[in-house]
Amino acid sequence: MPETSETRTEARTLHAAIKKAARKLKVSVSDLAIEIIESVPDRVVISARLKQSEEESGQAVQTAGEAESAPESRGESLEPTAPREARVVISADGMEARLHIEPTPGFSVRMTSSDMLRLLKRYAIEHNVDGHAVEKALDTIAKGVLVDEVAARGTPPEPGKDGWMEVLFHSFPTEMTAEDAEEKLAKACVEKGAVLARRHLPSQGRPGIDVCGRPVSAPNGRDAQIVAGSGVKVIGDGVTFVATDLGYPVFRRGILEVRGLLTVEGDVDALRKPLDEPGHVLIKGSMEEGAAVRVGGNLFVIQHVNKADIEAGGDITVGGGITGTEEESVQAGGCLRTRYIQGMTVCVRGDLTVENSIQQCRVDTMGVVRVTNGRAQIISGDVRGWRGVEAGELGSPYARMTAVKAGPSRDDRLHLQELKRQRDADYENILKIDKMAAPFVNDTRKLSTVPPAKRAAIQQALEKAAILRNNVGKLEADIAILEEALAGGKSPVIVAGHKVWPGVEITIGDFSKVVESELGPSRFYVEGTRVVRDAVKPDE
Question: What's the pTM?
Answer without folding.
Answer: 0.61
